[in-house]
Structure formats: structure tokens, C-alpha cells
């Protein structure tokens, strides 16, 4: 079996300044990776990079801005010489019954949660193709596998991330680039503070914490998953199996 170690690997995590993204950053760093924390939250991102030390840098990145993507990839190459792992994690959520879902809300959630993932994949592929390897990990949701009332834009974006991951996995396998999607269930973060998990039927009996996703991300970043591409990883305490 190939190892889970990430020594010398360079990983860029969008939305890495807080929440689940920060847990990914910590786990990848703990496993030996050099990490690029990319976010619009400059203070939180810079503080996390400073805490982790010289194998971590922060770069300001609004994932909806194509030009900022080129700069972020360049910053990663400048700091650490390559980019081996991209975790497209940045996301927002909004909810409304369909007749009250404004075009602005729809556009905003599609821009961050779907177009931002497209921009990220497109930006890193030339570097990954040149080095003949790479792992792209796209964060979808259980809402990318089923419908939920009110979450129309979010669900459309997360289904889109799932489909984009599969088409990319097929196109990029010949270049040694693996692409997988991860589908978290209910995780306690700022995104979910207004939702009471008590009514959710979670077989493992508790809501998730950001650290519950860490093992899946380290696995997908590492050589332990060297034959895994185009796959969908549900991490939800068993919630949608029922
Ligand atoms: P969060 O709100 O705590 O963190 C989201 C992060 O994304 C923040 O750091 C934020 O600054 C960043 N971000 C937002 N817009 C951005 C932009 N335009 N450019 C760059 N960064 C931006 O939320 P979270 O719960 O940690 O969510 C992380 C990811 O996990 C999201 O994609 C979310 O859809 C997904 N997810 C979350 C849950 C959950 O229950 N919390 C479940 C399934 C999927």
C-alpha cells in the first residue's frame, strides 16, 4: 500500500481560513504538506498561516475572480515550487422557496460554489499537466446527491461540482491528474449555526465537526488514493444512506 504521507507536497485550499477549510489546512500540514491558505478573510488566513509556520502561506483569493486565480497559482509556485493538491472548498449558502429566490442570490451561490470551482480547476491544470501529477479535491455536499427544499441554487451548484469532477477525472487521467468530489453532511460551522441538527436523522448520532472530514482529504491528497479518481466520498455520519 502506498503511504498517507504528504512530505514535499504543495496543497492549496480555498476557503481555508476558517471552518472546514481550516481543518483541511491543519490536517494536510500535519501530514507534512506545504499549504497555501486562499481566502477572502485576510486576517483569519494570515493568522492561521502564522500559527502553522514556515510550511504555510496565506494568499488573498476571491474564487469568483479569474485574474486572482492566476495570481494565487503563481504565489503557490513562487513560495513552494509547485502545486500538487487543490482543494476547492470555498462556499456560501443561501435558501429561499423558489418563487422568492432572487436572481442575485442564485448568481451569488453559483458564482462561488460552481464557477469558482471551474476557475480553480482550469487555473491549476497547466502546472499539474507539466509535472505529470496532481490531485484535485472538489467539495460538494450531500446536497449534490439529493434535493432539499429551499436550497435550489446551492443544490444546483453542488450537483454541478459533482458532474464537473467526473468529466475532469475522465479528461485528466491520462495526465496523471486525479479528480474526486467530497460530500459532507451536516457539519458544525458558521455556515450551519442557524440550523438545528436535532431534527436530522444521523445514524452515528451526532452532527459532524470539521475534523471529521480531515482523514478523507489527507487520503485523497496522498498516494494512498493513487488509483482513485472520479469517485464521490460521502462523509455524513450515515445520514443519506437511510
Ligand atoms: P464557512 O462559512 O465556515 O467557510 C467558508 C469559507 O469559504 C470561509 O473561509 C469563507 O471566507 C470562504 N469563502 C466564501 N466565499 C469565498 C470567495 N468568494 N472566495 C474565497 N473564499 C470564500 O463554511 P464551511 O461549513 O466551512 O463550508 C466549507 C465548504 O463545505 C463549502 O463549500 C460548503 O458548501 C461545504 N459544505 C459544508 C457543510 C456544512 O454542514 N457546514 C456541508 C456540506 C458541504
Automatic annotation (TrEMBL):
Pfam families: adh_short_C2. Keywords: Oxidoreductase. Belongs to the short-chain dehydrogenases/reductases (SDR) family. SMART domains: PKS_KR. PANTHER family: 3-OXOACYL-[ACYL-CARRIER-PROTEIN] REDUCTASE, SHORT-CHAIN DEHYDROGENASES/REDUCTASES FAMILY MEMBER. The keyword RNA-binding does not apply. This is Glucose 1-dehydrogenase. Residues 9-178 form the Ketoreductase domain. The keyword Oxidoreductase applies.
Amino acid at each position: 500500500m502506498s503511504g498517507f504521507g504528504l512530505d514535499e507536497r504543495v496543497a492549496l485550499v480555498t476557503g481555508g481560513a476558517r471552518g472546514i477549510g481550516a481543518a483541511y489546512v491543519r490536517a494536510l500540514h500535519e501530514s507534512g504538506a506545504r499549504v497555501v491558505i486562499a481566502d477572502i478573510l485576510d486576517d483569519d488566513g494570515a493568522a492561521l498561516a502564522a500559527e502553522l509556520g514556515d510550511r504555510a502561506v496565506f494568499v488573498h483569493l476571491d474564487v469568483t475572480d479569474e485574474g486572482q486565480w492566476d495570481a494565487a497559482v503563481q504565489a503557490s509556485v513562487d513560495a513552494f515550487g509547485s502545486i500538487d493538491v487543490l482543494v476547492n472548498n470555498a462556499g456560501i449558502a443561501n435558501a429561499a422557496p423558489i418563487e422568492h429566490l432572487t436572481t442575485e442570490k442564485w448568481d451569488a451561490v453559483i458564482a462561488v460554489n460552481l464557477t469558482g470551482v471551474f476557475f480553480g480547476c482550469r487555473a491549476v491544470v497547466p502546472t499539474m499537466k507539466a509535472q505529470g501529477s496532481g490531485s484535485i479535491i472538489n467539495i460538494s455536499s450531500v446536497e449534490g446527491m439529493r434535493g432539499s427544499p429551499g436550497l435550489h441554487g446551492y443544490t444546483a451548484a453542488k450537483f454541478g461540482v459533482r458532474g464537473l469532477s467526473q468529466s475532469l477525472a475522465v479528461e485528466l487521467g491520462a495526465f496523471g491528474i486525479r479528480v474526486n468530489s467530497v460530500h459532507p453532511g451536516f457539519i458544525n460551522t458558521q455556515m450551519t449555526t442557524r440550523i438545528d441538527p436535532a431534527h436530522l436523522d444521523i445514524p452515528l448520532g451526532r452532527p459532524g465537526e470539521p475534523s471529521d472530514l480531515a482523514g478523507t482529504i489527507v487520503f485523497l491528497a496522498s498516494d494512498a488514493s493513487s488509483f482513485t479518481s472520479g469517485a464521490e466520498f460521502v462523509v455524513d455520519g450515515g445520514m443519506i444512506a437511510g
